[in-house]
Amino acid sequence: MPEIHPSAYIHPDARLADDVQVGPHAFIDADVTIGSGTRLLHGAHVGRWTRLGANNLIYPGAVVGHDPQDIGYKGEEAWTEIGDGNIIREGVTIHRGNRPGTVTRVGSNNFFMVNSHVAHNCIIGNNVILVNGALLAGHVEVGDRAIISGNCQVHQFVRIGPFAMMRGGSGAVKDIPPFCVNDGLSWIRAINAVGLKRNGFDVRRVRAVKEAFKAIFRSDLPLAQALAKVENDLDVTDDVRQMLDFIRASKRGIGSGRGSSRE
Asked: Domains of the chain by range and CATH?
């Protein structure tokens, strides 16, 4: 049987694995499923229509799966789906989808630090870090192993590519390509060289990404010509192809590179 503190509230319709632990004054609403090994510490809140996987750790005061901050939302059934092995620290908020049948989806092994926020309909990959006070507006997508540093702000519908990094206090109103560092307001500053090396990228992989970055973000060529130059003149590795495809798929546009006249 789950280990449930007497002061916790568990809705009769909630389904908890046998080894779930629920601390004092925690709250679990209806239509919630919680997987094996997950722990809710005191005061943690899991809202309706939430699926939590295995081995998640939810700290005091965190709110997962509650109503979206959208004045158009009228209480319709919408979901929050969270994978396995996530750490959700104090004051974190992760809100459900904002329209019937929509979902806020979080992968596995992510680390949400104190007071970070994931708004409705976001899609978060795996091994992502949101540092204290990082704020994601609705419909943001974050790729695997991206890092959103402290007090960063991300505009709605922005995409952040895998292995990208936002420097502390920066903002993103345009997409951040994979492997890149965002600074200021959508300024693509550099590649995330330290992050790539820490994640096992060898010298050739890093060099190929760096050369592609220079051709795209340190050139005054129009974007389409810069991308064509990369394809024609440089080593188009799988990583470089991922960067090119991400940029071409952008609907909001991408941030500008230092020294470039391109908006």
From this structure: 3-139 (2.160.10.10), 197-257 (1.20.1180.10)
Instruction: Report how far apart, in Å, the C-alpha atoms of 157 and of each of 84, 137, 146, 150, 250 are.
Output: 25, 8, 16, 20, 10
Residue 206 tokens read as 């890093």
Strands 9-10, 27-28: pairing is parallel
C-alpha torsion sign, points 113, 108, 147, 65: negative
Reported as a single tens digit per residue, the pLDDT across 71-100 is: 999 999 999 999 999 999 999 999 999 999
Dist. CA 32–CA 244, nearest whole Å = 40
The sign of the CA dihedral 215, 217, 218, 219 is: positive
Tokens for 175, please give them: 């997409």
Write the pLDDT tens digit of every residue in 169-223.
999 999 999 999 999 999 999 999 999 999 999 999 999 999 999 999 998 899 9
Radius of gyration of the chain (CA): 20
Q: What single-letter amino acid sits at 124?
A: I
What global pTM score does this model have?
A: 0.95
Q: Contact at 8 Å (CB) between 95 and 119?
A: yes
